[in-house]
Amino acid sequence: MVLLIVRHGRTVANAEGLLQGRVDNPLDKEGVRQARQIGAALGPIDVVVSSPLRRALQTAEPLGLPCRVDERWIELDYGEWDEKPIGEITKEEWIRWRSDPSFMPPGGESLEELDRRVALGCEALLLEAEESNVAVFTHVSPIKSAVSWALGTGEQISWNLSVGQAQITRIAVRDGRPVLTSFNETGHLKKP
After folding, report:
1. Angle at Cα 69 formed by Cα 52 and Cα 131, nearest 5°?
2. Which active-site residues does the annotation give?
3. 57-92 pLDDT tens trace
4. Which H or E element spans position 147?
5. How far apart are CA 158 and CA 138, in angstroms?
6. pLDDT above 80 (res 136)
7. What local confidence, expressed as pLDDT, does residue 192 receive?
8. Predicted local distance difference test score (pLDDT) of residue 37
9. Which sign does the torsion angle of CA 130, 135, 140, 142 carry?
């Protein structure tokens, strides 16, 4: 069985290249189409878990299964940077954020804090994913943290990973341990 970590479909903020943390944007038309494609690509699912944000919940809808909301899978809190283009972040702040995992955007959350809460979310699903196919609908930053957890890295690897829109990452559970079996699958996404 497997833990499937799914990034939500596209929103208007994604299409415009804005940082999108805790703002609760819905999927745009393309995102709704991507959600249907994800649903078809996942295969049999026994358990659905989602971030509380609308874009993740909407991406899970095509499965037609009950969904457990888990706050640990919510996107990184960008604080005052939410819905800003990256170009509006000062060069000094951007460099500091990329080099210091304890750095917090003004009013936001650090990557260290994110890694801790996502690791707890992963651990909470480990036994269930050993016996069931568990799909988690979430966001870019939690996916990077889940990959770090699965690989057992001791340092922050977020900046070394690129997570595509509406991607699927698969983490198998073998002998009680996570094993990353695929990362950033996007072959299921077909253009209209």
Report:
1. 140
2. 8, 75
3. 999 999 999 999 999 999 999 999 999 999 999 999
4. helix 140-151
5. 15
6. yes
7. 76
8. 98
9. negative
At position 47, the amino acid (one-letter code) is V
Opening angle at CA 186, ends 165 and 2, nearest 5: 100
pLDDT band (50, 70, 90) for residue 154: confident
Task: Give long-range contacts, CB 8 A cutoff, 24+ apart: 96-100.
Answer: 98/159
Question: Could you tell me the two tokens for 126?
Answer: 């480990």
> Number of helices and strands (H, E) in the chain?
6, 6
Per-residue CA distances from 167 to 84, 88, 114, 146, 162 (Å): 23, 27, 20, 14, 10
β-partners of residue 153 are: none
Quick one: which H or E segment has residue 169?
strand 168-174
Q: Token digits for 20?
A: 């999108």
Q: Round to whole Å and give the CA distance between 132 and 143.
A: 20
Sequence-separated (6 or more) residues with CB below 8 Å from residue 150: 122, 171, 178, 179, 180
The encoded tokens of residue 22 equal 């805790």
What are the angstrom distances between the C-alpha of 53 and each of 78, 102, 138, 139? 14, 24, 8, 9
